[in-house]
Amino acid sequence: MEGKQTIMRRSALAAIAAIGSASLLLSACSKADDNSDNNGNKSAGANAATKGVVNASTQKGGTVTYEYSDVPDSFDPGNTYYAYMYNLSRLYARPLMTFKPAAGEAGNELVPDLAASPGEPSDGGKTWTYKLRSGLKYQDGTPITSKDVKYAVERSNFARDVLSLGPNYFQQFLEGGDKYKGPYKDKSAEGLKSIETPDDTTIVFKLNRAFQEFDYLVATPQTAPVPQAKDKGIDYVKSIVSSGSYQFESYEEGKQAVLVRNKNWDAKTDPLRKQYPDKIVVKLKVNAETIDQDVQAGTAIDLGGTGVQAATQAKVVNDASLKANTDNTYGGRLVYMAINTQVAPFDKVECRKAVQYAIDKVSVQTAEGGPIRGDIATTVLPPDIPGYEKADVYATDGNKGDAAKAKEQLKACGKSTISTNISARSDRPQEIDAATAIIASLKKVGINASLKQYPSGKYFTDYAGVPEFDKKQNIGLHMMQWGADWPSGYGFLQQILHGDAIGASGNTNLSYIDDKEINETLEKAIATEDEAERNSLYAQIDKRAMDQAAIVPLTYFKVLLYRPANFTNLVSTAAFSGQYDYLNIGTTKK
């Protein structure tokens, strides 16, 4: 999951009782201490939201405002792939399973959402059966059925020419997924045969191979129900039918979305959501520095959840009263540079190794904001993902690069100089700064890279994620940040290393690596029941990817969030890369 962040530290897949946030608020409340900010408001203290719920409250009313510096890929739950949209979408789109609203690693626990209980596996993990809760309704009062969930999966995974922005796990793992053309082309009433709906509350998924972590897969918003009669393809985003506690009052593309309470949402069918604010406003294309100012003023929440800007960071970390309002935590993410194995001369491993040795990672870390924004990385898997094993294949003195070794590899590649381009997102200043530091490192060894900037909302659909575009523009290097689609080695690695994840657009495998050994080991891992054995296989995949020099790990990402006053029920969750859980945030202001 891009930006995305989402991370596992337990075996899961066991039946887990849904835990409502009311009990969470009672058991994990962070009470205010003697810390206060410059406005005299009391603070719960630094990192309080990573340990419990800050400003726990059941107060209803008011407006919660989110701000974002760009535009999201899509509000459509079946056509999004950013962590913050996975997080936000749960307000209006209920998947079969989701993550428990809880602090830190406790937030990685799966709980039933639309489903009444976790999936029932059979046939060695090749068949998964879910029963829906009773009494579920859309915003218009019509019943939600298993057929709507089936349709949601079909449209999100099998109509890639229409909806290309989300992952395609279901397409890869469902029987007949390689042949089904999707509901916009296949007009048969039966649809994809490997998703069965024997009655309105039962849905059965038949897989082409064992998938021991399937409960995590159905926690994506792609399983949030969509009524087929109301679907408008790419334009469904303009009239989304809510299954959650909030519904769209208005949507102005590229500008703003306003959500209000869904009157047909029934708390009896939903132990997770509490429907506290009257209204939720999402403002788009807000200047990043303005967002920081609004967050500090207590009038907005940073939707992207990637942390404060550099100037704000310097201000808050050097002021004890301001620092007391921050949450600094690992986001289960890797900041890295993908080396495009399809763009010459990086189709040769020696040229890729030259890049590995050339980069001064300390300069990159500094450009990103220093150690508070991430530890220097040497592996694909971050330390808080199962399968991580400490290693440093391209070790250099002090992590500052080794020009001599880089030039050795260039010579072995048959080159003395290389001219290429490096892509980065124009609305992410720290990413631009990191890319600029990399360019300086590469220049010292004869690799001349020019920076190409593209907006994050189109980064994967129109630019870096389009192989033909990369080749035409000679983009051999891509700035990237990645977190697990779900908390496991497979959830982290599959979409950035498996050959099946590569398509004509919308790619997150920006290395465009299609390695037989990696592909086969990933498939073996996901079919393995024993967790320790699975994790060992994930470590092997990490090593293979580094040996192939397809990814340059830069930093193990840490987020520095400023905790806005006036908002209630703030809790930083590992499930969404350290972001605050957006499910039940309220406000003290009417």
Automatic annotation (TrEMBL):
<keyword id="KW-0732">Signal</keyword>
<dbReference type="InterPro" id="IPR030678">
    <property type="entry name" value="Peptide/Ni-bd"/>
</dbReference>
<dbReference type="Pfam" id="PF00496">
    <property type="entry name" value="SBP_bac_5"/>
</dbReference>
<dbReference type="InterPro" id="IPR039424">
    <property type="entry name" value="SBP_5"/>
</dbReference>
<protein>
    <submittedName>
        <fullName>ABC transporter substrate-binding protein</fullName>
    </submittedName>
</protein>
<feature type="signal peptide">
    <location>
        <begin position="1"/>
        <end position="32"/>
    </location>
</feature>
<dbReference type="InterPro" id="IPR000914">
    <property type="entry name" value="SBP_5_dom"/>
</dbReference>
<feature type="domain" description="Solute-binding protein family 5">
    <location>
        <begin position="109"/>
        <end position="501"/>
    </location>
</feature>
